[in-house]
Structure formats: structure tokens, C-alpha cells
Write a structure and sequence with these properties.
Elements: E1 7-10, E2 14-20, E3 23-28, E4 31-34, E5 40-46, E6 50-60, E7 66-76, H1 82-89, H2 92-112, H3 117-122, H4 124-138, E8 144-155, H5 157-232, H6 236-244
Antiparallel strand pairs: 1-4, 2-3, 2-5, 6-7, 7-8
Helix pairs in contact: 1-2, 2-4
């Protein structure tokens, strides 16, 4: 039993602080180690990455909207600093409480206060980046901040209802704009169709007018040709009548009248 108390083991993700009668006398690396029974004690400190969750950070936006922020901080303790960590803070929990917790609450409020409520939601990535940078800069000591992630922003019920109402109003406005655009396009289509129909009617009327004009011109030319022919050939009328005569004489003759197609000369 005495021999068993002379050995200790340190896991790979840990470092050990060796205490002798309560005083720090060294550190222990991962693996099997030897200690003096009843005099030495080994305090193990994790050097793995840890996540600390903060689920109730109260804050106010720049436009005075109350919110509760949930965020997580991923951190790790440097292996070379475990002796200092134990000497100054007593444990990992003591370091987190004194170095990280206070700065997280302080910086989360400060950064969030620089954003309007709407901007904090719309520019969540920038809010997260600025919060992480502020916490990194403010935490001074034997700890490394790997990342900060804003998990949730919870506004008051009244404000969230007002946001929902505003979004519904914006959707309605957008719908009205789309309807107006659709009606405008439909009106343009109707005008275009009306113009096309009017052009077609006008083209048809012009074609008919042109055809009538051409027919009139042709008829006038024919009349003029006939008139010229009659002037140049006076006997053309008698010839035309003779060609059309059926060979029958009138049954009734008026005394002194001429017999058709029988000249008096």
C-alpha cells in the first residue's frame, strides 16, 4: 500500500502541479511519476480546449432595446503556465471566474451597445467578430481564447412582436409593389396590342384605298382610251352596234326614221 502511494499518473490532456507540504515544487508531464508519500500531492489541471457557456448575459442595444445574449467561449490553459495558474488562481475554475467571466459580461454588453437591435440581427457575423476581438483583448493572463460564438439573442416579447408586425407590413408593401408592376406590364401589353391592331386596321384601310384608287385610275384610263378612239374613228359606234345587232328589224317604224345600219348617204 505504501508503494502504491509513491506513484501517480497524469493523462495526456493534463499537466500536474506537484505540491510538497502545500508548496509548489514543480510540474508533472503526462505519464507515470514518483512522489514522496504523505508529503507530496499532485494537482491535475486540464490543458485541453474547454467551452464555457454564458446563457444569461443582459444587454441593451444602442436604440435601448433590452436583450439577453447567449454565447460560448472556447479557451485553453497553456501547459507551460499550470504552475502559475495554481499559484495565482488555485484552479481552472478560479481562473475562469476571475479572468474570463467578468470580461465576457463586460465586453458583450459594450459591443452589443454599439449596435441597433435590427443591425445586431442583420449583421450577426460582424457583431460576433467584434465581441470576440473585445474579449480576446480584455482577457489578460495565463489563458488562451480560441473562439467566441454568439449562440442566441433574445429580445423582449413586445419588441419581437413589433419586428414581426413590421416584417408583415413590409411583405404587404412588397406585394402591392409587385401587383402594381404586374398591372403596369399588363397595361403596356394591352397598349402594344391595341397599337398593333390599329396599325393592322390602318394598313388594311390603306391597302383598300390604294386598290380603289388603282381601280379608279384604270377605269379612267379606259374611258379616256374609249373617248380617244371614238374621236379618231367616228364610225366605231356604228361598227360596235352592228356587231351587237341580232339581224332583226324593228316591228314598228316611225315615219321618216332611218332603218338601222342602212346609211342615207
Amino acid at each position: 500500500m505504501f508503494g502504491l502511494k509513491s506513484f501517480y499518473t497524469v493523462d495526456q490532456g493534463e499537466r500536474g502541479v506537484i505540491l510538497r507540504t502545500g508548496a509548489v515544487v514543480g510540474t508533472a508531464e503526462p505519464g507515470l511519476g514518483f512522489k514522496i508519500p504523505f508529503l507530496d500531492r499532485v494537482v491535475k489541471i486540464s490543458v485541453q480546449s474547454r467551452a464555457q457557456i454564458y446563457d444569461s448575459v443582459p444587454a441593451y442595444s444602442r436604440d435601448q432595446q433590452a436583450a439577453v445574449i447567449t454565447l460560448s467561449v472556447n479557451y485553453r490553459l497553456p501547459a507551460a503556465e499550470v504552475e502559475r495558474i495554481y499559484a495565482d488562481y488555485g484552479s481552472e475554475e478560479g481562473l475562469v471566474e476571475r479572468l474570463i467571466d467578468r470580461r465576457v459580461f463586460e465586453q458583450a454588453k459594450n459591443v452589443f451597445g454599439q449596435f441597433n437591435a435590427v443591425t445586431a440581427i442583420q449583421e450577426r457575423v460582424r457583431l460576433n467578430a467584434e465581441t470576440e476581438a473585445a474579449i480576446r483583448d480584455s482577457v489578460k493572463g495565463p489563458v488562451l481564447i480560441d473562439s467566441v460564438q454568439i449562440e442566441n439573442i433574445d429580445f423582449s416579447d413586445a419588441y419581437e412582436q413589433s419586428i414581426e408586425n413590421r416584417m408583415l407590413a413590409e411583405v404587404e408593401v412588397q406585394k402591392l409593389r409587385q401587383n402594381a408592376e404586374r398591372e403596369k406590364v399588363q397595361a403596356q401589353i394591352t397598349v402594344t396590342q391595341a397599337n398593333a391592331q390599329a396599325d393592322a386596321v390602318r394598313a388594311q384601310a390603306e391597302a383598300q384605298a390604294a386598290a380603289t384608287r388603282l381601280a379608279g385610275d384604270a377605269e379612267a384610263d379606259a374611258i379616256r382610251a374609249k373617248g380617244a378612239a371614238l374621236r379618231d374613228n367616228p364610225s366605231l359606234i356604228e361598227l360596235t352596234a352592228a356587231e351587237r345587232w341580232n339581224g332583226q328589224l324593228p316591228t314598228t317604224m316611225i315615219p321618216g326614221s332611218a332603218v338601222p345600219f342602212i346609211g342615207t348617204k
